[in-house]
Write a structure and sequence with these properties.
alpha/beta, Rossmann fold, two-stranded parallel ribbon, 11 helices, 12% strand, binds zinc ion
Length: 319
């Protein structure tokens, strides 16, 4: 027990900035039992995901056989998240860590190294990514693959394999769960495609805060424009705002949007200055809480497309 504790402490010290290490060590010592009771209450293998969307997808494959938990909470900014000591304690008890990859979770490598020798699966591995087209991230892979329900199907195959490794007896259940969930994703993809096909060509420009919609835009024939390429580089500059205002005016974009995990202030200003309407909040990097519009991954996709339909089906002239 003492050896384990010392190991935890040394990992925490490695992981945290020195200034806060004593404070966090204290937090660690005082919060250990709470975390144990909260999180390891079952004998099921523990699967930790880096964000809530992956947790929901994972639960659909895991069913009741695994205890799935997200490290980041609903509403958290996930690209530049700063893990806490209790995140690290939790991770050290995990049987599997599930991450998206492609540079999405900037904090993940250091975090999983500090957590110890825990098996990790990177869901985007092997999928050919779309590249970011503009700004300082030009040419880098866009990590938001799950925004395409068709591509998310590849995530399910990877989860079945990884879950079967930690719970071999559950293998058939995972495969069956994934099959059922795949059918739901395929059906939803058809519905979303059918809806978006109704948007007239001249209104097919999707304006968001983060450039997180490339996969959705690519699947359903939309063009995209955004304030910043990824949230890890979300500085709002007058240049970026002016460029977006110009695009909105040029294409007569009736409605623009922003996402739940970032501040919409600059986008509201872009809307005001360009004459476009502000169409509401998309969910991309995080689910909503259970009372919100996107408590599951499938509802997240439906909610976004519903907002797109409400915003881009209207006739509006911008001067
Ligand atoms: Zn993002």
């Amino acid at each position: 027990m003492i050896t384990t504790l010392i190991l935890f402490l040394s990992r925490i010290r490695f992981f945290l900035n020195k200034k806060f290490s004593l404070l966090f060590t204290f937090v660690l010592l005082t919060s250990c039992s709470i975390d144990s009771n909260n999180n390891i209450e079952t004998n099921k293998p523990l699967v930790l995901t880096t964000f809530t969307v992956l947790a929901d997808i994972s639960r659909n494959v895991a069913g009741d056989r695994l205890h799935v938990k997200s490290i980041t909470k609903e509403g958290a900014e996930i690209h530049g998240y700063k893990p806490t000591p209790s995140d690290l304690i939790l991770a050290s008890k995990a049987d599997l860590i599930v991450e998206n990859g492609l540079g999405l979770e900037l904090w993940s490598k250091k975090f999983t190294n500090a957590a110890g020798n825990i098996p990790k699966i990177v869901l985007s591995e092997g999928i050919t990514p779309l590249l970011i087209e503009g700004d300082v991230y030009k040419g880098k892979p866009n990590p938001h693959i799950w925004m395409s329900p068709k591509k998310a199907i590849y995530y399910l195959d990877k989860l079945v394999e990884a879950f079967s490794d930690i719970d071999p007896e559950g293998s058939n259940t995972f495969e069956e769960n994934a099959r059922i969930y795949k059918t739901k994703l395929i059906n939803l993809d058809h519905q979303l495609r059918e809806s978006i096909s109704k948007i007239p060509d001249k209104n097919r420009v999707l304006v968001t805060c983060e450039g997180a919609f490339s996969y959705l835009a690519n699947d359903y024939g939309l063009k995209e424009a955004y304030l910043w390429p990824v949230n890890s580089e979300s500085q709002v500059t007058p240049k970026r705002m002016l460029k977006l205002i110009k695009t909105i005016k040029k294409h007569q974009v009736p409605t623009i949007f922003c996402e739940s995990t970032v501040n919409a202030k600059a986008q509201l200003e872009v809307a005001r200055s360009s004459g476009a309407s502000f169409g509401g909040t998309f969910y991309v990097d995080s689910l909503s809480d259970k009372n919100g519009p996107a408590p599951t991954y499938l509802e997240l996709l439906s909610h976004n497309v519903q907002l797109i339909m409400e915003g881009l089906l209207i006739e509006k002239t911008i001067n």
